[in-house]
Amino acid sequence: MVTVADLKINPNSGIVGTANQLNYNSAINYTHIFSPTLVMNLFASYTRADNSTYPHAVDLNPNEAFGQPNVNSPIGNASGLAPVFVQGGANLGDNYFVPVTHADNTFQYMGAFAYTRGSHNVKTGASLIRRQLFSLQSNFPEGQWVFLGYPALLQGQYFSTTRNIDLYPPHFRVWEPAPLQPFEARLP
What we know:
A hairpin with a 2-residue loop joins β3 and β4. About 5% of the residues lie in helices and about 50% in strands. It has helices at about 60-65, 150-155; strands spanning about 1-5, 5-10, 20-35, 40-55, 85, 100-115, 120-135, 145, 160, 170-175. It has one domain. The protein is rod-shaped, with a radius of gyration of 27 Å. It contains 2 helices and 10 strands; from the N terminus they run ββββαββββαββ.
């Protein structure tokens, strides 16, 4: 880490900052025996996966501190140090494709009945899965500059510049049928 313009930044390109991962699951299962020949099983579960990765200089707006206004943006959390690539030299800035934010919710519901008559067993039921996914990942959200050598860098003559940022991150929602999960019922 170095201190430049009163900011502590990591000048090494390709190194990411903090990564937060929060994952949890809960489930409930209920089995009811109506008679020696009829059994009901109900099941519900919820799973959450919330994973994110941020650049080292997140929320510090280093490009603004270096005299480059409007490079850092709250849109897409593009507030890290924009990458600079120098042909034949060392790179500077945060990793591209960062920040990354993924949040995935999965709800599963299942109900089934098992009926036994003599040597015959019949099972019927249904199962549904509800998925909700939020995903935000842009290629070079702070921008990227390419210089053809150090003389071009010192003169501020960049060869190319790129900026790709998701203005509207997708929120996917879907219901899907699921295969009926077997359950074991021991009848008296």
